[in-house]
């Protein structure tokens, strides 16, 4: 007889700081491609509900015989269906970090088809070798060398640190050489951070824009002394090195969440006996208010089964929302559930 196991040790968390989903549970998938999940974005990187009006869309495709082994994550520009980025991700990415964690080669392109970046990651999603970044006109923008600095404390895997070898403007003038100079790093939409590097370490005041607000950070020897977030209502939020980034957490702890979700998953054998997959993956968002919403599932399962999965997660109540640089942010989680 089949039974259900919730595999929390291989939970994937991805940072999505510009998400404004509608209320209620939603499953976003295409009937013609039952093993592929889709996410749609506007030009600022905000997740939206459909391809209509989107700037780009992302496919997450199970790769290989077991959908829990490896995912191909492919991003396209909606208007032209041209490739925006392509990479792979293992399901055991660390749950306590923001962002999709890639493995192997990751490549991205501008809307005009020119190469935007070329990066490589090891099997634990640590950047390795050298990363190359370009401007839309094809000129070289930046070379980052990932230097091995030791082993991570808990996992024992290789830890690397970026060395900013070169950074140039769009006409070829050098702004950073061998870790010294003025560096500007751009993100989705209008987001950026910029400041001075001394011996490859952040020094002095750095400033930037993301999540719709301006912020300033003071560094010494690459350590954050203090950050200030200037909110639209006039409030100033202070943050420091120790609380610059925090994940969404369940108030009573992960073990209580695990036990509670397992108890809530009261799914009959009749609902799962026809499921061909050995496992399914449920993706959901923990929003700025700590609520779980925007549920998605890649595999083909009965509608009633999906509804019970959503109900089981929502019965656990609200989480403590994730924070980044003094602001509550949305975080996507994927829970692989094995059916035996």
Descriptors:
single chain, 340 residues, mainly beta, 18-stranded antiparallel beta sheet, 7-stranded antiparallel beta sheet, 3 helices, 25 strands, 50% strand
First-to-last CA distance: 8 Å
Q: What coarse outline follows from CA principal-axis ratios?
A: globular
- Kindly state the mean pLDDT as a whole number? 81
Main sheet overview? 18 strands, antiparallel
The DSSP helix count reads 3
Regions with pLDDT < 50 over 5+ consecutive residues? 1-34, 92-97
SSE order and pairing:
Blueprint: E1 4-6, E2 12-16, E3 29-30, E4 33-41, E5 47-48, E6 56-63, E7 70-77, E8 83-90, E9 103-109, E10 115-121, E11 127-134, E12 140-151, E13 158-168, E14 174-177, E15 180-186, E16 192-198, E17 201-210, E18 213-220, E19 223-230, E20 236-239, E21 245-246, H1 254-264, H2 269-272, E22 279-286, E23 292-297, H3 303-314, E24 322-324, E25 327-339
Antiparallel strand pairs: 1-25, 2-25, 3-4, 4-5, 4-6, 6-7, 7-8, 8-9, 9-10, 10-11, 11-12, 12-13, 13-14, 14-15, 15-16, 16-17, 17-18, 18-19, 19-20, 21-24, 22-23, 22-25, 24-25
Description of the structure:
It is built from three helices and 25 strands. With 340 residues, the protein is mainly beta. Among the domains are: 1-60 and 251-340, no CATH class; 185-246, no CATH class. The chain has an 18-stranded antiparallel β-sheet that branches. Strands 1, 2, 21, 22, 23, 24 and 25 form a seven-stranded antiparallel β-sheet that branches. The radius of gyration is 21 Å and the shape is globular.
């Amino acid at each position: 007889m089949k039974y259900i196991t919730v595999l929390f040790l291989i939970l994937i968390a991805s940072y999505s700081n510009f998400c404004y989903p509608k209320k209620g549970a939603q499953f976003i998938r295409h009937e013609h491609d039952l093993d592929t999940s889709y996410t749609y974005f506007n030009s600022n990187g905000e997740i939206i509900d459909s391809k209509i009006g989107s700037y780009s869309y992302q496919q997450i495709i199970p790769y290989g015989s077991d959908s829990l082994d490896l995912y191909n994550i492919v991003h396209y520009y909606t208007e032209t269906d041209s490739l925006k980025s392509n990479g792979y991700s293992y399901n055991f990415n660390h749950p306590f970090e923001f962002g999709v964690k890639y493995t192997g080669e990751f490549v991205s392109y501008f809307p005009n088809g020119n190469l935007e970046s070329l990066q490589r990651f090891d099997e634990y999603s640590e950047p390795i070798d050298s990363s190359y970044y370009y401007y839309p006109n094809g000129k070289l923008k930046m070379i980052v060398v990932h230097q091995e600095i030791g082993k991570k404390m808990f996992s024992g895997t290789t830890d690397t640190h970026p060395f900013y070898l070169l950074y140039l403007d769009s006409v070829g003038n050098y702004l950073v050489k061998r870790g010294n100079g003025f560096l500007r790093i751009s993100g989705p939409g209008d987001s950026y951070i910029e400041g001075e590097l001394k011996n490859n370490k952040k020094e002095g005041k750095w400033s930037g824009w993301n999540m719709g607000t301006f912020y300033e950070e003071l560094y010494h020897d690459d350590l954050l002394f203090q950050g200030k977030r200037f909110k639209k209502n006039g409030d100033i939020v202070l943050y420091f090195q120790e609380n610059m980034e925090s994940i969404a957490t369940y108030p009573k702890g992960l073990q209580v969440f695990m036990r509670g979700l397992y108890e809530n998953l009261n799914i009959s054998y009749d609902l799962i006996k026809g499921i061909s997959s050995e496992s399914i993956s449920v993706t959901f968002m923990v929003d700025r208010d700590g609520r779980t919403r925007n549920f998605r599932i890649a595999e083909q399962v009965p509608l009633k089964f999906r509804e019970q999965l959503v109900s089981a997660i929502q019965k656990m109540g609200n989480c403590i929302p994730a924070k980044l640089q003094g602001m509550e942010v949305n975080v996507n989680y994927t829970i692989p559930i094995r059916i035996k």
